[in-house]
Amino acid sequence: MMILFALLGALVIASAIGVVALRHPIHSALCLVLNLVGVAALYAMLDAHFLSAVQIIVYAGAIMVLVLFVIMLLNIKVEQPHRRGIILTLLATLAGVCFLGILAPLFYRGLRGFTDHSSKIEGTVEAFGELLFTRYLFPFEAASVLIMVAIVGAVMIGKRHQQGGSK
Amino acid sequence: MHSSWNLLSWLIFTPLIGAVLLYLIPLFHPSVDRHGSKARWFSLAVAVLTFAISVCALASFEVNGSMQLVERAAWIPSFGISYAVGVDGISLALILLTTVLMPVVLLASYSVHSKVRAYLFHMLLLETAMLGTLAALDVFLFYVFWELMLAPMYFIIGIWGGTRRIYATLKFVLYTVFGSVLMLAAILYVVWAYAQQTGEMSFLLSDLLARTELSFKEEVWLFAAFALAFGIKVPIFPFHTWLPDAHVEAPTGGSVILAGVLLKMGIYGFIRFGFPLFPRGAELFIPVLCGLAVIGIVYGALVAWVQTDIKKLVAYSSVSHLGYCVLGLVALNTVATTGSVYQLLNHGISTGALFLLVGVLYDRRHTRDVAEYGGLAAKVPVFAFLFLVFTLSSIALPLTNGFIGEFLILTGSYVTFPFYTTVALLGVILGAVYMLTLYMKTMFGQLDQAKNGSLTDVSAREVATFLPLLILVFWMGLYPQPILRRLEPAVDTFLSDVKARSQMLEEREMGFMAQMRPQLIRAQEGAVPGHGIVQRTSLKESNL
Amino acid sequence: MERTNAALALIPLFPLVGSVAAFLVGRVHKRAAGIIASLASILAFVWTAKLFAAMSAETVLEDVVFSWFGVASLQVDFTLRMDALGAVMCLVVTGIGSLIHIYSTAYMAEDDSVHRFFSYLNLFMFSMLLLVLGGNLLVLFVGWEGVGLCSYLLIGFWFRTIDYAAAGRKAFVVNRIGDAGFLLGIFLLWMNFGTVDFLELEAAIAGNMTLVGLCTVVALCLFIGATGKSAQIPLFVWLPDAMAGPTPVSALIHAATMVTAGIYMMARMDFVFALAPFTLAIVTIVALLTAFVAATTALLQNDIKKVLAYSTVSQLGFMFLAASAGAYWVAIFHVVTHAFFKACLFLGAGSVIHGCHHEQDMRHMGGLSRYMPITFATYLVATLAIAGIFPFAGYQSKHAILGALEHNVNPYIAPYNSWIVALVTFTAFLTAFYMTRSLAMTFFGKYRGHAHPHESPAAMSGVLVALAVLSLFGGWFLETRLPNFLEHVLAVAPGHASETIVESLLHSWVGIAGVVLGLLFYTSLAGVPGLVFSLFKPIGVLFQRKWFVDELYQAILVRPLEGVSRGLWKAVDQGFIDGAVNGSGAVIDTSGQVLRLTQSGQVRHYALWMFVATIAIVVFFLVRS
Amino acid sequence: MIPVSFYLTLAALMFTIGVCGVAIRRNVIVVFMCIELMLNAVNLSMVAFSRTVGNLDGQIGVFFVMVVAAAEAAIGLGIIIALFRSTRSLESSEASELRR
Questions:
Q1: Interatomic CA distance for residues C599 and C609, integer angstroms
Q2: CATH T-level fold of A2-112+120-136
Q3: Are there at least 3 beta-carbon pairs closer than 8 Å between B and A?
Q4: Phi and psi (nearest 5°) for B271?
Q5: pLDDT 10s digits, C32-84
Q6: Which of B108-117, C537-546, D29-38 ranks highest by mean pLDDT?
C-alpha cells in the first residue's frame, strides 16, 4: 500500500511540477492529464470509487480535451522567458516554501488527534446517489442551473465576439 | 385636513413619482420628445402640483409652535429607525420656499439643451430630497435625505456645468461629504448613548431629545461634528470656498437651487438638530460661530467687491448674507432667530433671482465677465428693472423683503452681541458697494461692446419666471406678518427646548456626580470656570 | 396734544400711484408723464393743505395704515403721523415739489426717457413724504432709504455717462455709511425702551436726566446718519458729485428737501439730543467746519451747479448749527427759507443751462441778463436772499441762527460762543461773496459762450417767479408765525424783540458787504481775483481742489480697502483655504499615485499578493495562538 | 493504512505548486491549468478528510467542486478565446486594461 502511495505521490508531484515548469502549453496539459489520473488513483485508494471514475471521465476526459482543443485551436507558441519573470519565480517559490513551512507544524500538531474511520465509508455510486438526491437535492439542482448558465454564458461570449470581430 | 391624508408624504414623494414617470412614460423618450418640451411641461406640472400640496399643508397648519402633520411608521424596527415626518413653522416656511423656487427653476431650464430628461429627473429628485430633509423628524431619515440631496446636485453640476465643472463638483461633494460623515458618526454616537441609557434603540428626534443624557464633554465633541457638517453647508467663513466654484460652474437652475435651498439646510440643521441636541456644546461654540459669522459677513462682502465674474460675485454675497443668518441664529433670542429664518427665505428669493438674471445674460452672451457688459440698461430696460429690484432686495432696502430679515437679525443680535453686530453693520455698507458696483458696471455707461448691441430683452417666459419672485420681494417686504406669525411660535419652541434641555442635562450631570463623587463637582466647576455663568446670562437674555 | 385719525396715507399715496402711472402711460405718451406726475404732486399738496387748514398747532393727525411687522416685543406699525413739524415739512415738500414738477415738464421735455424721470421724481416724493410723516423710526427709515434710492436713480439718470452713474453710486454708498449709524441708534433705542414710536420714545426719554449717557451715544449714532443724508463732514463728498443729475433733481432733492432730512430727523428726535450736550457740541463743531469748508470751496468753482452744491452743504451746516444750539425751530425755519431760495437758484441755474444749451461752466456765460431777464431777476432775488439781506427770506433765518448761537447754553460750547459767531458771520460773508460771484459771472459783463442763449418757456419762468416771490416774502411771513405754530412740538426760545427796518438793514451788513465786494471783484475790478489768487496760491489751490477730500478718501479708504479685498481673495481664499483644500486633495492623490505602483494590472501579480497575504494572515493567527 | 496527513501533505504540495504556477506563468491557459491543479489539491484533501470524519459529505463537496470546475472550464476557455481574438496573444501581461 505504502509503496503504491509513494509511487502515486511521486507521479502527482512530478507531473504538477511539470505543468508549471514546462514551456510548451501542450506539454503542460499532458502533465496535467497525468496528474489528474494520479489523483484519481489516490481517490480510489481512499475508497472514493465514484469520484475516482468521475475524475477520469470528466476531468481527464472532458475538461482536458477541451483545454487541449483550445491550445491547438489558438496555435500557441512557446512562452518566452521574461527578465522580471525570474525574480517573480524566485519570489513565488519563496512564498510557497514559507507556506509549506507554516503548514508543516500545523499538520504535525493538529492532526495527531484524528482517529481514522477508514473502514466505515464506501464512496459507491449507490451511497453517493442516495445522499445527492436526499440531503443535497437543492445544491444539486442549483448546480445544474449553474451549469446551464455557464453553457449559455459560454455561447454568449463566443457569439458576441463573432459579431464584434465581423465589424 | 386630517393627518391621515398623509399630506407630507405626498408632498415629499410627488416629485419623486414625477421623476420616475419621466422615464416610464414613453412619451418623454428623446426619440419622441426631440427637444424635451413635453418632459419640461410635465415636470413643471409636477412641481406646480407639489407647490399646491404644500399650500394645502399651509392651509391645514395651525399657528402654534408644535410639530404638525406628523406621520410615523416603523422603517427598520430592529434599529429603531422610523419614517417620521412633520413640520413646524420654520420647516414649513422653508418647504414653501422650495416648492416656490422649483417651478421657477424648471421654467428657467430652457437653457439646458442636452439630456433634458435626465436634467429634469435630477431636479425633481433633488426636490424630494430637499423636502424630505426639511420634514424629517428621525435622525436617520434626515441623514438619508441629507445625503440624497448631494447626488442629484453632483450630476447637475457635473453634467450640465461649465468648463471647470469636474473640479467644482468634486470639491462640492468632498467638502460636504467630509462634514456629513462626521455628522453620521455623531448621530451614531448619540443613538448608542441612548441605547446604553434606555436599553432600546431609536433614531427618533423626540426620543433622543427627551431621554439622551450626555456629559458636557460629549456634547462639545458631538456639536463640533454637527457644526462642521452644517457649517460647511451654510457655508460659514473658512469652509466657504466650495461655494463660488460650485456656483460658477453650475447651470442656472443648479445655482438657484443651491443658493435658494441647499444653503439653508445648514442653518436649518442647526435649529432642528445641532442646538436642541447639544445645547451646552452649542453654548461653548456660540462665540466662535458668532465671530466666524461676522468675519464671513465682512469678508464675503469685501471679496465680492473685487470679483469680475458676476456669478462669483453673487456667490460671495451669499457668504456675506448667510453670515447674517448665522449671527441671528446664535444670538438665540426670538427676534434675531426669527429674523434669521426670515432672512433664509429672503436670500433664497433675492439671490435665486440674481442667479436667474445672470443666467438670462449668460444664455445670450455666454460670458459672465463683468467687463463684457456695460450700458445694458438702455438695451434691455425690463431686464435692468428686474435686476435693480433684486439688487435692492439683496442690499436690504426697506419695503423689500431683505430689510425685514436684516433688521430683525441685527436688532435682535445687538441685544446679545453689541460689538459683533456693530461690526456686522459694515456688511450693510459693503453690500451696497459691491452690488451697486456690479449694477453700474453692467447696466450703466456706454453700450460699448458690439456684441451687446444685439441683446434681446427678457422674453415672456423669463418674465413668468421672475414674476413670482418679484411679487414675493415686495409682499414679504410690505406685509411679512403672515410669515412671521408662523415662524415666531416655532422659534419660541426652539429656544425653550434648547433652554429646557440644557437645564435638564446640567442637573442630571450634577446630580449624577453628586451621587457618585461629591468632590468632583468642585473640580468640575474649577475646570470650566465661567461656563455656567455664560450659559445663565445668555439664556436669560434669550427671553426677549 | 390731541390725536385725531386722518387719511394721511393719501398724501404719499398720490405720488406713489403717480409714479407707476407716469411710468406706464409715459412709455406711450411722453408728455402725459409730466402731467400725471405733476398732478399727483399737486394733489398731494392740496390734500396736505386741506388737512393743514383743519389742524391747530396742537393737533396730531394719525393714521395707522397697517401693522407692518412684529416679532416678540418688536412690534412695528406702519404709522403715519402729522404734527405741526410734519405739516410744515409736508407743505414744503409737496409745495416746492409741485413747483419743480411743473418746471420739469418743460425742462425735461426733450429727453427720451422722460417717463422714467417723472416716475423716479414721484417715487422720491412718496419716500420723502413717508420720511416726514413717519410716526416711528422705522417708517422714517423707509423714507430715509427710499429718498436715498431715488437720489441714486436720479443722479444716475443719464446713466450712459459712467461718471454720472458712479456719482449715483457714491451718493448711495456714502449715505449707507450714515444709515449704518442711524440703524445703530435705532437698535439702542429699541433695546432700551422697547419701542421705536416717536411719541412713546418721547414719553420715555424726555427730560429723564438719568439717560444722559445713553442719549449721548444714541444722538451720536443718529447724527452719523444725519451727516450722511445732509452732507456734513465727513460724509459730504457725495453732494457735489450729485450734481450729475438733471437740474430739477438737484433743486428738489439735493437742495430743498432730501438733504434737509437730517435736520428734520434731529428736530424730530430733539428729546434725545436735548439730553446729549456732548453730542450737540460735536454737532456744532462739525457743522461749523462744514459750513466754512464748503463756503471756501464754493469760492473758486466754475461750474454753476457746483457753486450751488457747495453752497447747499454750507447752508446745511448753518441749519445744523442752529439745531445744535437747541434752536430747532430756527433750523426748520432755515430749512424752509433755504428751500425757497435754493430751489429758485438751482432752477435759475437750470434755466441758464437750458438757455445756453447745456453749458454749465460759468466762464462760458456772462451777460445773460439781457437774454433771459426773468431768470436774471429771480436769480438776483434768490442771491440777495441767501446773502442774508433784509427783507429777503434768508435774512430772517440767518439772523435767527446767529441769535441762537449767541445764546447757546451748551456747557461745552458756551465759552466759545463769540468765536463761533464770528466764524459763522465770516462764512455768511463768504456766502454773499461767492453767490454774487456766480451771479456776476453768469449774468453780467459780456457773453463769452458760443451758443444762442434764450429765455426759458413759461412753465419754467413761471415757477422761478413763484419761488422768487417766496424768497422775497417767505422769511418775513414766517418769522413770527412759524415759532408760534411749532412751539408745541419743538422747544422755541422766547422770541427776540422786533426791530425796525433800519436796524434790520444794519444787521444785514455782512451780506451787503459780501455782495458789494463780489460785484466789485467780478465786474469793474476784474483783475483783482486773479491777483488775490496768485498771492495766496496754496490756499487758492486748496479751495479750488475742494480741500482734496475726495483724493484723501480715495487714498486712505477706498484704495487700501480694495487692495485688502483683493489680497483677501487671492491670499486667503484662493491661497490659504483653497490651498489647504486642494493640498489635502493633492496629498491623497500623491499617496494614491505611490500606492498605484503596486497595482501592475497583471493577474498573476495579484494572485501572488493574495497568496502572500494569506500566509501573513495564517502567521498572524499562529503567532497569536 | 496510510495516515491521512500523508494525503494532506501531498495536497499541500500540489496546492503550493499550483499557486506558484499561477504567479509565475504568463500564459493564460497554463494559469488556468494551474488553477485546476489547486482545485484538485483541495479535492484530494477533502476526500481524505471525508474518510477521517467517516461520512460522505466531503466527497459530495468534491463532486460539486467538479461541477463548478466544469462550468469554469466552459466559461474560462470561452473568455480565453475572446481574449485571444482581441489581443492576438495569450500573455496575461497584455491584458492589463484594469490598470488604465
A1: 10
A2: Four Helix Bundle (Hemerythrin (Met), subunit A) (1.20.120)
A3: no
A4: -70, -45
A5: 888 999 999 999 999 999 988 888 878 888 888 888 888 888 888 898 988 88
A6: D29-38
Q: Taking CA atoms, what residue in B is nearest to C163?
A: B445
Looking at chain C, which residue has its C-alpha nearest residue A109? Answer: C622
| First-to-final CA distance of chain A | 61
Residue B530 above 60 pLDDT? no
Q: Do D19 and C611 touch (CB under 8 A)?
A: yes
Contact criterion met (CB < 8 Å) for D17 and A17: yes
Residues of chain C under the 50 pLDDT cut: none
Partner-chain contact C581 B175, CB within 8 Å: yes
- Bridge partners (DSSP) of residue C197 are C136
Contacts for C552 with CB less than 8 Å, ≥ 6 apart: none
C314 and C423 fall within a common domain: yes
**Backbone dihedral angles phi then psi of residue B287, each to the nearest 5 degrees:** -60, -40
Give the C-alpha separation, C68 to C64, whole Å: 10
Residue C447: what pLDDT?
81
Q: In terms of pTM, does the model score above 0.95?
A: no
Please answer yes or no on whether C184 and B429 come within 8 Å at the CB atom: no
pLDDT, residue B2, reads 47
Establish whether chain B is in contact with chain D, requiring a minimum of 3 CB pairs below 8 angstroms.
Answer: no
Nearest Cα neighbor of C187 from B415, D49, B296 is B415
Minimum Cα–Cα distance from C184: chain B residue = B422
What is the rounded CA–CA span in Å between residue A27 and residue A36? 14
**Helix/strand/coil percent split, chain C, to 5:** 75, 5, 20
What pLDDT shows up at residue B100? 93
Judged by CB atoms closer than 8 Å, whether chains meet at C619 and A102 is answered as yes
Both C336 and C434 in one domain: the answer is yes
Identify whether A139 is preceded by a cis peptide bond (ω within 30 of 0): no
Distance of CA B424 to the CA centre of its chain: 20
Say which of A36, A74, A153 has its CB closest to residue D40. A36
Percent of chain B exceeding pLDDT 90 equals 47
C66 CB neighbours in chain B (<8 A) are 479
Do residues C376 and C510 share a domain?
A: yes
Q: Which domain holds residue D79?
A: 4-88
* Residue matched to cell numbers 514559507: A98
Domain assignment present for residue C242? The answer is no
Structural domain boundaries, residue C492: 179-202+209-225+279-289+297-536
Which residue of C598, C599, C604 is the best one to mutate when testing the D interface, meaning the one whose CB has the most D CBs within 10 A?
Answer: C604
Secondary-structure percent of chain B, ordered helix, strand, coil, rounded to 5: 80, 5, 15
Q: Is C446 on the interface with A (CB under 8 A)?
A: no
CB contact (8 A) between residue A63 and residue D55: no
> What is the Cα B479 distance to its own chain's centre?
22
Instruction: Report yes or no: C557 at the A interface, CB cutoff 8 Å.
Output: no
Q: What is the mean pLDDT of chain B?
A: 87
The rounded distance, in Å, linking the Cα atoms of C317 and C430 is 14
Same-domain check for residues C406 and C466: yes
> Best residue in D30, D33, D98 to probe C by mutation, most C CBs within 10 Å?
D98
Mutate to test the interface with A, among C603, C609, C611, C617 (most CBs of A within 10 A): C611
Cβ-proximal residues to B434 (8 Å cutoff; 6+ apart), any chain: B301, B304, B305, B307, B313, B317
Q: What is the pLDDT of residues C591-622, one digit of tens each?
A: 988 888 777 777 777 888 888 888 888 888 87
Res D65 pLDDT > 80: yes
The answer to whether C322 and C262 have CB atoms below 8 angstroms apart is: no
How many domains is chain C partitioned into structurally? 2
**Spans of chain A, pLDDT less than 50:** 161-167
Q: What is the pLDDT of residues D49-64, one digit of tens each?
A: 888 877 888 889 999 9
